[in-house]
C-alpha cells in the first residue's frame, strides 16, 4: 500500500535538505581544517542518496496529486480526464519502490557500513577438522570478494600440517564491504565426515568469524607512547624458521592490552604496517561496541566461545545444505555457497530481515 504524503516525517526531510545545502556551502568555502574537511565531505556524500530519494519522492507525490486533482475536477473535459488517468497508473506503480527506498535511507545508518573490512577466521571446537573448515571458510570469503570485484589481501595465516588454519586474517576493500559482510560474524558449524575419520562417522566442528570495519587514522588515533613494539625472528609450522632476519612484529596496545602479531612479510616495515591496520580495526570496533551496549551484547551472543552449541550457521555436508539459524533459511547448495557464488542469497536475506526489523522499530511501514 502506498504511503500518503504527510505520513512520512516531512519536517525531518526538510532538516536533511537544509543540512545538505549547508554542507555544500561550507565545503565550497574550504571547510576549515583538513580533518574537518574530510569529515564534512564524508557526511555530504552520505546524505547525497537520501537527498535524491527525498526529491524523487516529493516530485512523484506532487505529480500524482496534480493528476488526481485534474481527474476529479468537474471542469476537466473527458479527453483530459482520460489522459490524466492514463498517466496516473505508471506513477502510482512507481510510488511503493520510491517510498521504500526513502524509508530505508531514513533509518539510522551504521557509520561503518561503507567501510572496508578486516575478516578474521579462527578454528573453534574440533581439532584438525575445525582448522580445515576454517581454511575452507576463509577461501569462501576470498572467492566472494573476487566475485564482487573487491580487493582481497591476506594479512596473516597460521596453517596446520594438513592444510587447515588455526587463524587467518584478511583485508577486503571495495564499495559497501562491511555493510554486506557484518552479518557473517559468529560461530559457523560444520557437520561432515573428516578426512581423518576411518569409521565414516559424521563429526561436528566449528569456526568463528569476526568481521571488523577497517578504521582510518581519522577514526582512531594511536599514540606512539601507547604502543610496545617487539621484533623477533619469524617461524613457521612446527617452529621452523621462515627467514633469518628479525622481521616479525608484535604490537601491544598498552591502554587496552590488545596484542597483534604479524610475521608473514619478510619486511619488518610491512609487518608493522599490517599489524597496525589490524590493531586500528580492533580498537575502532571496541569503541563502537562501547558506545552501544546493546549491540555489544548481541555480538557477544553471536561470536561466543566457539563451542558446538553456539552457532549462527550450519554447513551440513551429508545433506548438502546450509542453514542460517537467525532467519530460519536453508539452501540445499552447500558447494555453491562455499564457492562464494550462492553466499549472496544468504546475505541478501539477512540484510532484508535486518531492514524489516529496523523499519518496524522505527514505526515505519515494512
* Oligomeric state: single chain
Our measurement of the CA-to-CA distance between the termini, rounded to an integer number of angstroms, reads: 10 Å
Shape: flat
Helix content: 40-55%
Strand order of the largest sheet: 2-3-1-5-4-9-10-11
Tally of DSSP helical segments: 9
Low-confidence stretches: 237-243
Question: What integer value in Å does the Rg equal?
Answer: 26 Å
Average pLDDT value?
Answer: 85
Order of helices and strands: HHHEHEEHEEEEEHHEEEHH
How is the main sheet built? 8 strands, mixed
Which structural class should the secondary elements be placed in?
Answer: alpha+beta
Estimate the strand proportion: 15-25%
Beta-strand segment tally: 11
Please provide a written account of the structure.
By secondary structure, the chain is of the alpha+beta class. 47% of the residues lie in helices and 19% in strands. The protein is built from 9 helices and 11 strands. It has helices at 10-28, 34-72, 78-106, 127-147, 177-181, 268-291, 293-303, 334-338, 343-361; strands at residues 117-123, 151-159, 165-173, 186-192, 203-213, 227-232, 248-253, 258-262, 313-316, 321-324, 329-331. The strands form 2 sheets. An 8-stranded mixed sheet has the order 2-3-1-5-4-9-10-11, sandwiched between helices. The protein has a 3-stranded antiparallel sheet with strand order 6-7-8, covered by helices on one side. Strand 2 and strand 3 form a beta hairpin. Helix 2 (34-72) packs antiparallel against helix 3 (78-106).
Amino acid at each position: 500500500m502506498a504511503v500518503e504524503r504527510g505520513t512520512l516525517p516531512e519536517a525531518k526531510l526538510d532538516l536533511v535538505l537544509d543540512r545538505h545545502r549547508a554542507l555544500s556551502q561550507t565545503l565550497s568555502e574550504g571547510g576549515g581544517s583538513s580533518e574537518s574537511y574530510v569529515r564534512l565531505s564524508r557526511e555530504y556524500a552520505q546524505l547525497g542518496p537520501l537527498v535524491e530519494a527525498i526529491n524523487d519522492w516529493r516530485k512523484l507525490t506532487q505529480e500524482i496529486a496534480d493528476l488526481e486533482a485534474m481527474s476529479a475536477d468537474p471542469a476537466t473535459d473527458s479527453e483530459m480526464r482520460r489522459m490524466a488517468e492514463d498517466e496516473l497508473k505508471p506513477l502510482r506503480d512507481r510510488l511503493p519502490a520510491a517510498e521504500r527506498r526513502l524509508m530505508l535511507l531514513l533509518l539510522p545508518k551504521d557509520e561503518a557500513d561503507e567501510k572496508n573490512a578486516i575478516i578474521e577466521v579462527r578454528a573453534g571446537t574440533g581439532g584438525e577438522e575445525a582448522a580445515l573448515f576454517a581454511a575452507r571458510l576463509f577461501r569462501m570469503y576470498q572467492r566472494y570478494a573476487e566475485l564482487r570485484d573487491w580487493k582481497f589481501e591476506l594479512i596473516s595465516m597460521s596453517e596446520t600440517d594438513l592444510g587447515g588454519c588455526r587463524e587467518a586474517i584478511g583485508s577486503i576493500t571495495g564499495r559497501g564491504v562491511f555493510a554486506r559482510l557484518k552479518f557473517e560474524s559468529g560461530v559457523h558449524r560444520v557437520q561432515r565426515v573428516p578426512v581423518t575419520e576411518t569409521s565414516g562417522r559424521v563429526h561436528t566442528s566449528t569456526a568463528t568469524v569476526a568481521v571488523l570495519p577497517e578504521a582510518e587514522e581519522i577514526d582512531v588515533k594511536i599514540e606512539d607512547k601507547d604502543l610496545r613494539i617487539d621484533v623477533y625472528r619469524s617461524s613457521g609450522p612446527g617452529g621452523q624458521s621462515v627467514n633469518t632476519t628479525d622481521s616479525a612484529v608484535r604490537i601491544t596496545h598498552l591502554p587496552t592490552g590488545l596484542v597483534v602479531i604479524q610475521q608473514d612479510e619478510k619486511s619488518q616495515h610491512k609487518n608493522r604496517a599490517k599489524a597496525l591496520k589490524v590493531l586500528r580495526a580492533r580498537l575502532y570496533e571496541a569503541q563502537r561496541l562501547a558506545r552501544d551496549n546493546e549491540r555489544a551484547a548481541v555480538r557477544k551472543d553471536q561470536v561466543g566461545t566457539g563451542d558446538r552449541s553456539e552457532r549462527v550457521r550450519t554447513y551440513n555436508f551429508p545433506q548438502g545444505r546450509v542453514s542460517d539459524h537467525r532467519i530460519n533459511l536453508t539452501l540445499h547448495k552447500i558447494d555453491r555457497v562455499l564457492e562464494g557464488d550462492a553466499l549472496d542469497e544468504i546475505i541478501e536475506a539477512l540484510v532484508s530481515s535486518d531492514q524489516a526489523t529496523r523499519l518496524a522499530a522505527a514505526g515505519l511501514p515494512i
